[in-house]
Amino acid sequence: MKRKQLAPHIHADQPAAERYLYVLLALLPAWLGAVFYYGVRVVILSVLSAGCFFGVDFFVSRRMYPEQSYYVDLSSLVSGVLLVLMVPASASVWAILLASLFGSLLVKQAFGGVGTNILNPALASRAFLEVTFPVQMKAAEAPFSGLWHLSSLLNGSPAEQTAFGDTSISWMNILSGRLLGMAGVTSAVLLLLGLLILVERRLFRFEAPVGYFLVLIIGYVPFYWDALRLDAFFLWLCTGGLLLVGIFMLNDYSTIPMDPRGRFMFGLVAGLLTLVLYRFGNSSYAMIFPVLMMNMTTPIFDHYLRPRAFSKPSWYREVDE
User: Which residues are within 8 A (CB) of 24 and not within 5 positions of it... i.e. 6 or more apart?
Assistant: First the structure.
C-alpha cells in the first residue's frame, strides 16, 4: 500500500510515545548519576513515582473516557522520573506518593489529561512538596552517604547540611555533581549529555532555554555584584536545579507557548523571576515557581502569537455571517 504524505500542518512523523521515550533516554545519564551517588533509594523512589503517575493516568482515563482506548504516551513516566531527580534522595516514600498523586490527578487529569494541563506536572508536584514537606526538601545529603541506607524511605532523614552555602569546592566536583543537593540536578556534565541526546533527536526547542539562560548569565553580574566569583556562579547554576529546568522544563510540549517568539519571551521572564527570587525572596522557590507562574501565561501567548493558519493571512478563521 502506498504511504500517504503528511498534511501541511504536521511537521514530524513521530508519535508522542516515541518522543517521550527519547526524553526518558535523555534523563537516563542524570538518573544513573543519582543512583551512583545516592544508591538504591533513588531506584525505589523512581519506581514508586513513575508507577503512581502512570497508574493514576491509566485509571482515571479508563474511568472518565471508557469509550476511548488508552494510549500509552510515556509522559507519566517522564514526570515521575523528573520529580525524583528534583528532590533530595532522603525524601520519604509518603512524600513522593502524595506529590505524584497531586501532579497526576489534580494537575493533569483534572484538566483533561496529557496535553491539556496548564502547569508542568513534575514541577507542580515539586511545588507541592516544597509547601507540605519543607523540612524534607531542605535535607541535602552528601553523595555516597548511606548508599544502601533505607530507613529514610518511610519518614525521611533531615540533614543539618545545606546545599547552597559552601563555595570552596573544586571544579571537578562542580562538573561531576559530587555536591550537596537534590538527587539528580547537580551534575552539569550528565545534564548536558541529556541535552545532546535531545538535540540529536531534534526534540529540543532552543528559544525558551536561550532566553532563560541569557537572563541568568547577564543578570547574575548586577544581582550578585557584591559576591561575584566564577566558581560561585557555576556552583549556583549546578546545585540550584537551573540546568534541569532549562533543559527539560522549558522544553515541555503542552505548557510552553507554541510560537518561537512566545517561547523566547517565556524564557526571558522566567529567568528574571528566578533571579529576583534567588536574590530577594525564598531561594527554595526560585527553581520551581517562576516556570509555574509562566506556565499560566502560556494561553495568553498562544492567543496573541498563534501561528498563521495554512493558506490564511493570519491565525484566525473567517466566519461567514
Answer: 74, 77, 78, 81
Q: Does a structural domain hold residue 242? A: yes
The set of cell numbers assigned to 306 is 498563534
With pLDDT > 70 as the criterion, what percentage of the chain qualifies? 80
Going along the chain, which residue ranges are E strands? none
Q: Is residue 3 part of a domain?
A: no
Q: Which residue has the cell 494537575?
A: 107
Nine-digit cell string for 261: 517568539
What pLDDT is stored for residue 309 in this prediction? 61
Contacts of 108 (CB under 8 A, 6+ apart): 57, 79, 114, 117, 121
CA distance 10 to 235: 41
Residue 182 included in any domain: yes
* Residue 61 belongs to domain with CATH number: 1.10.3430
| Residue in 80, 125, 117 with CA at minimum distance from that of residue 252 | 117
Q: How many residues does the chain have?
A: 321
Tens of pLDDT, residues 22-33? 999 999 999 999
Q: Which residue range(s) make up the domain with 257?
A: 16-304
pLDDT given at position 271: 94
